[in-house]
């Protein structure tokens, strides 16, 4: 089931107020059209009736994909809520939730993302059958080997599943300040494949490195307070 509610929103360009219907949760199995809207950056988009401005309202949202047994929480990172605060708060509520659930119930995988771009990246990744922890491990090694050019404080690395080929995974650098997309980096799929096999044999090291629910090489590097 998808959940929406009506909220009174003020247009950022002209200040006109209007009631709009926004989604808090979407179930992509029962309402695939909402997923489509999300992928096309049309979900929770508001059109101002007065000045014609078009803007997106980012609220915490739950993406539920029962077929892939995954729940993704999108909690937007912004000036009011920092990455650190979101991660701390989310860990706390996840612990509380786990305590309430009987042990014999198998829970869906829970993931956390902090931006729409991360959410879309993760959806593509899941649907392509890629292993998120292995992909983040690949990003971690790209960052570590190119610290000057690909500084995690300045850039996000995003996997572009659509432009990846059978031989190469295609990553794009995104400026973390302006959100502009920049250089493309390619990574051999064979190397990804062998790492993925390592994961299947023994996932412990990957899970230690990226326990979740927020699985992000960049976040890990920023947390480690790297010396460049
Ligand atoms: Zn307006």
Protein described:
The model has no long low-confidence stretch (mean pLDDT 93). It is built from 7 helices and 10 strands. α2 (83-100) links the parallel β6 and β7 (109-113). It has one domain. The chain is globular, with a radius of gyration of 19 Å. The strands form 3 sheets. The chain has a 5-stranded mixed beta sheet with strand order 1-2-5-6-7. A 3-stranded antiparallel beta sheet has the order 8-9-10. A two-stranded antiparallel ribbon has the order 3-4. The chain is an alpha+beta fold and 228 residues long. Helices cover 34% and strands 27% of the residues. It starts with a strand and ends in a 5-residue tail after the last helix. Bound molecules: zinc ion (ZN). Zinc ion binds next to loops.
Lay out the secondary structure:
Layout: E1 3-10, E2 17-27, H1 32-39, E3 45-47, E4 54-56, E5 61-65, E6 70-74, H2 83-100, E7 109-113, H3 116-127, H4 132-145, E8 155-160, E9 168-175, E10 181-188, H5 189-201, H6 204-209, H7 217-223
Parallel strand pairs: 2-5, 6-7
Antiparallel strand pairs: 1-2, 3-4, 5-6, 8-9, 9-10
The structure holds zinc ion.
Residues 11, 13-14, 16, 48, 50-51, 53 line the site of zinc ion.
């Amino acid at each position: 089931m998808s959940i929406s509610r009506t909220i009174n929103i003020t247009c950022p360009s002209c200040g006109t107020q209007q009631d709009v219907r926004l989604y808090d949760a979407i179930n992509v199995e029962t309402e695939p059209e909402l997923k489509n809207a999300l992928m096309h950056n049309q979900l929770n988009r508001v059109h101002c009736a007065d000045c014609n401005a078009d803007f997106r309202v980012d609220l915490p949202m739950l993406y539920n994909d029962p077929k892939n047994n995954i729940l993704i929480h999108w909690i937007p990172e912004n000036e009011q809520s920092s990455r650190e605060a979101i991660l701390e708060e989310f860990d706390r509520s996840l612990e509380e939730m786990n305590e309430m659930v009987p042990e014999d119930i198998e829970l869906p995988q829970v993931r956390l993302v902090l931006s729409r771009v991360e959410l879309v990246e993760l959806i593509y990744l899941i649907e392509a059958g890629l292993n998120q922890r292995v992909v983040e491990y690949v990003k971690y090694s790209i960052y570590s080997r190119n610290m000057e050019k690909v500084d995690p404080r300045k850039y996000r690395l995003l996997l572009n599943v659509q432009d990846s080929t059978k031989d190469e995974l295609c990553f794009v650098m995104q400026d973390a300040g302006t959100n502009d997309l920049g250089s493309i980096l390619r990574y051999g799929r064979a190397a990804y494949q062998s790492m993925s096999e390592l994961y299947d044999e023994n996932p412990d090291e990957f899970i230690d490195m990226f326990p979740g629910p927020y699985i992000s090489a960049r976040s890990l590097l920023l947390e480690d307070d790297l010396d460049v």
